[in-house]
Design goal:
The protein has about 475 residues and is an alpha/beta fold. Helix content is about 40%, strand content about 20%. The model has no long low-confidence stretch (mean pLDDT about 95). The structure holds nicotinamide-adenine-dinucleotide. Nicotinamide-adenine-dinucleotide (NAD) binds next to helix 7 and helix 8.
Length: about 475
């Protein structure tokens, strides 16, 4: 067992000050590996949220005046602090979220990388000059920060998914109020604290609260000009409606159910090794997790045997133990949701190949489901847990047809060396990100976002920066 630390639930960061929320409610923060309560988190009430809104406006008024080079330097100082404090932040993350410590460290490093990339991009927020129709006149396109941002991040990758919003908003010159997940508050607070004192007060604020109360109050406020949400489809749909009512721009990243097309020429050993690691990372609670495996009929049995054997060899346990390869699910409701989905799919004809798992804590076994029909619950609903399906296909057209039947469209994967197959999948697979013979669908410098029920808009890359910018045309007439 690694050295542990005393866990304390954080306070709110409002108007440049860490202070307790005044809501009558405090919620428990639970260690999912042991089911023990770590501490209680005091939530924000209406007045706290109002104070944050007023401060966000003042923060924006100040921060937008800071030259891009200086914004970049401030953010880079915060990133350096994140790197210095990486072990501490990662330990908090493992305690409250459950993922193995190595994964928590990698997540913190990735979050730092994201903010660093955005910081550098602040200096490259170019507009453009358009050739004029009239002598002596000048047509210019300017990029300006959209204004104070309300952002909502979930518990599965609390650091990375918050960093995408914090980095983009601050680099663009916006202020941001982040409502992070109440399940995993301390790691996000420790990350946010790395920027404390570097930015004007109110530029970066952190709230925890009753999610529906916070989002309603923030989005309906005239202060907020942009909304960014990562989470489930039902909540995303709801926030899209609230945002539409107040005509607020919104970016939605709502999860996925990624198809993996394994063609007959794929190297089974390499594909299985890569996909088992990727599938069961964070116990499968990843929006880009490979989940629906469509395998060429000629290699189906070999693939299934290798994939099932490798999955069942994973060591499940407390993420604080160095031997652990897969931790628990993040909370008790995920365990019942995954169990229920498997049960309904088995009732609909699926066969489940399952490993074992620890009895204490919120664990679920690694499960590989075969004999699944396109209308099976496991195909139609996002499992968001350690569950994969394996189905055979007869032709690439058939595989694409099956893969595109899902309502989701976030990430996709294909394994083949055939240029023709790669071209066809790149053209026809309905996803926002596609990895060919690999798993790298999410890097700071490239856009990440979905189609269909996976949401709209992109984070990361220049598209992620664009989401926090307004475009203004100015015409100087001679
Ligand atoms: P949920 O729908 O209850 O909550 C999802 C997230 O949204 C939580 O962080 C919650 O605090 C927040 N939320 C809920 N209501 C809100 C509101 N009215 N306003 C603002 N925020 C609100 O789901 P859950 O049980 O936490 O997670 C289950 C499902 O969520 C998963 O099956 C998965 O589909 C999805 N999910 C997706 C991602 C992702 O990366 N896209 C991350 C986490 C969860």
């Amino acid at each position: 067992m690694s050295a542990t630390i005393a866990y304390r639930a954080p306070t709110l960061l409002v108007n440049g000050r860490w202070r307790a929320g005044k809501h009558r409610t405090a919620v428990p923060v639970v260690n999912p590996a042991t089911a023990e309560t770590l501490d209680h988190l005091q939530l924000a009430d209406e007045k706290d949220i109002d104070e944050a809104l007023q401060a966000a406006q003042r923060g924006f008024d100040a921060w937008r005046q800071v030259p891009a080079f200086e914004r970049c330097a401030c953010l880079e100082k915060g990133v350096a602090r994140m790197r210095e404090n990486l072990d501490h932040i990662a330990t908090l993350l493992t305690l409250e979220q459950g993922k193995p410590l190595a994964e928590a460290r990698a997540e913190c490093a990735m979050a730092a990388d994201l903010i660093k990339w955005y910081a550098e991009e602040a200096r490259r927020t170019y507009g453009r000059i358009i050739p004029s129709r009239l002598p002596g006149s000048l047509m210019q396109v300017r990029k300006q920060p959209v204004g104070p941002v309300a952002a909502f991040s979930p518990w599965n990758f609390p650091l990375v998914l918050s960093a995408r919003k914090i980095g983009g908003a601050l680099a663009a010159g916006c202020s941001i109020i982040l409502k992070a997940a109440e399940e995993t508050p301390a790691s996000v607070a420790a990350m946010v604290d790395c920027f404390h004192g570097l930015l004007p007060e109110g530029t970066l604020q952190l709230l925890f609260g009753v999610p529906a109360e916070v989002s309603e109050q923030l989005i309906s406020s005239s202060v907020i000009r942009k909304v960014s949400f990562t989470g489930s489809v039902p909540v995303g749909r709801h926030l899209a409606q609230v945002s539409a009512k107040y005509l607020k721009r919104i970016t939605l990243e709502l999860g996925g159910h990624a198809p993996v097309i394994v063609c007959a020429d794929a190297d089974i050993g390499k594909t299985v090794a890569m996909m088992v690691a990727h599938k069961f990372r964070n116990a499968g609670q990843a929006c880009l997790a490979p989940t629906r495996f469509y395998v060429a009929r000629e290699i189906e049995n070999d693939f299934l045997d290798a994939f099932t054997a490798a999955s069942q060899q994973l060591v499940l346990g407390n993420g604080m133990q160095s031997s652990t390869q897969m931790g628990p699910l993040a909370n008790a409701r995920r365990v019942s949701a995954v169990q229920d989905l498997i049960q309904r799919s088995v009732q609909a004809g699926a066969k489940a190949h399952q490993g074992s798992c620890p009895e204490t804590g919120f664990f679920a076994p690694v499960s590989v489901l075969t004999n699944v029909q396109p209308d099976s619950p496991i195909i139609q609903e996002e499992p968001f847990g350690p569950v994969a399906t394996v189905t055979s296909f007869d032709s690439l057209d058939h595989a694409l047809h099956l893969a595109n039947q899902s309502p989701y469209g976030l990430a996709g994967y294909v394994f083949t060396d055939s240029a023709r197959a790669i071209h066809q999948v790149s053209e026809q697979l309905e996803v926002g990100s596609l990895a060919i013979n690999g798993m790298g669908v999410s890097v700071p410098e490239a856009p990440f976002g979905g189609v269909k029920d996976s949401g709209y808009g992109s984070e990361s890359g220049i598209e992620g920066m664009e989401a926090f910018l307004d475009t203004k045309f100015t015409h100087y007439c001679a």
